[in-house]
Amino acid sequence: MVAKDSPLLIDCPPSKRGAITSAHCTLDAAVIKLRMTAYMWQALTAEDLREKGLGRRSFRLDEEWGLDTTTMNSSYLQSDPKDTRMGSVAKVHIVRSEKTVAQLRDAQVAQRDHSGRKRYELQRYFEHALAEHGHPFVSAFRPVVAGLILDSHYSVEKGLILAHAAFGHHNPDGLSVGMYGSHTTYAWPRFLEEVPACLLDMTPTGDTVGNDNGLCTTMQGACSSGQWAVLQEVGGAFGAGPLFSEDIMEGGATRSWGQVFVSQNEIKQRVQWDLHDALRFLRQDHFRLPGDRALTRSQNESSVLVRCMVDENDEPLLEVTCRAGLARIRFVDDQGKAVWEFDFCRKATAELEDTEITAKFGPTVFHLTLQALQERLDRSIPWGLEALGMNGMADKVGNLWVLLADRPFVKVPGTSLVLSKRSVKSPALGNGGDRPYWRWAMLLVRKHQQGGGSRLTYANRIDIRVGATMDGAVVYYSDGSKCNCGVAHQTHYGGHQSQAKSLSEDETLKITKVSINVQRGSASLDGCQMTLSNGETWGAINSNDQQNSQHLEAGEDERIIGFYGQSDTRSGYTYEFGIITAPKTVTDSEEGLPRQIYDMPEFMNIDGGLGPEHQHHESDHDEDWDQDEDEDEDEDEDEDEGME
Q1: Distances (CA, A) of 315 to 308, 376, 380, 397, 423
Q2: CA distances from 453 to 121, 485, 624 (A)
Q3: Mean pLDDT of the chain
Q4: Is the dihedral of CA 6, 10, 14, 16 positive or negative?
Q5: In this predicted model, what pLDDT tens digit does every residue of 176-222 receive, in sequence order?
Q6: How far apart are CA 411 and CA 177, in angstroms?
Q7: What tens digit of pLDDT does each residue of 513-538 get?
Q8: For the chain, which domains are there?
Q9: What are phi and psi of 623, to 5 degrees?
Q10: CB neighbours (10 Å) of residue 242?
């Protein structure tokens, strides 16, 4: 992007012969430097994804037929025009802004000026210039743009880099932009032959150009940190996080970046994409290759589940599952450092022929016995676990031993049937001192409440109560009875976003996913949404940020047969919500679930695990709940006013 009165020059120190020649500071130089850098980004990404076992792939560049500036031999530097070569080259668009140089270099819009009142205006200037330029920067095409502000300038007087903003924004339905200033471009290579020289040049940059957090004291530093920083913003435009390197936080970006392109030693301390982001790339059209396996809708949306099961000897068994296939499982210490890792992508790649370039998927189910874990991991250390699915979904466990000790399953007496349990908890659960929580559980099919006997009744309506927070839920049955997903004797629920859905008898056990919003760190769960096998949903997540949502899903061989959780005994708000699942081989059989299940007290919402004194004293608490409902409605109204 250039200002409407731009001199079409970039900062260039005397050590780069800036006062003598314009070879490194003109618009033409900036164009071929950005083009060469884009090729370097492509090469880094392709090799990194190949090493990760995802196939040699990278983003595609918009191209045009023009003068090939990749090498000096083919460029415009040749004195004889016959020696220049034409070909398909990455196109660099020159986009003119309606702003003047003075407006772009206003200190108030400089991102690095923390006292500035308009520090994010440059982003809007850039996006507006793209919109005014038109094709190909049209939202309908969902373009991803890597952009430089040509008129960036280091002010010696103010000690500030002007007309510069580091910004990366991903918009899956429109224009995605990664932008940066051009203040380090003078150190970038123009041609392939200049790459080693630029990455090894220890010449001081001097005092006339920006130092950029102390990383640009040499030409090598300016080149490495500049190219690396812009690619980080481009990664942000693709929805990725920062580039990763073990020493990057200690200023090691310069060394790590250079080792990607210049072979000096065998140290593998190079800049790379996080595997989580690489898997996200895999799902984007930019990175697709012929022969790539397409994920089904259920695989694409499948969560990674980490849970405790039992083996044939009734010993705890760690199970990790993902319908899309597992990419990596690793055990980490309290500092987040991996001490034991299963990288299914790389393992698969070792078995590939060189001609095979598509990604290979890991197993959908992975098991480790308690004995195997204890042989490898010190029992006195609270090891964490991180699991990644091939669809980019992830799950974490803070303490592996706690997971295995608090067995999330229930054995049905007199049978070999084991029911699984998994839940989402508010981070605030248990932080309220002596506050009692009501533990509840219920089944979607239960014994008929009118007349007893062995007749069964099924859930024919589920009302999810969500307002400013998750109040709870009420399940209604075909015999006219109901059961709270919360405090058993609570009679009132608030929630202006509440939604209910009627279910047929065939749909009762067809709930496949429950999504929970856990945005607030100091309160109850914020929202809940349920999904049927046909894709129908109801409830309210209560957030536009999907990253705050956690999904509870039945496995491919399971059905959800009930819910459980914990609720505040006074307000009734939900602090834990979970699902109870059973194998399809049992639920779908002619006999169905064993009759013993319907008599198990742990699936009856009776006293909340708090003793008989808490059983059904409505008269004592109705006033409290009426007050809580009014408070919830007031909070909902305040939230609505805030949104307006």
Answers
A1: 10, 17, 19, 20, 21
A2: 71, 24, 36
A3: 83
A4: negative
A5: 999 999 999 999 999 999 999 999 999 998 888 887 777 788 899 99
A6: 53
A7: 999 998 755 588 999 999 999 999 99
A8: 14-279 (no CATH), 302-402 (2.60.40), 409-603 (2.100.10.30)
A9: -65, -40
A10: 19
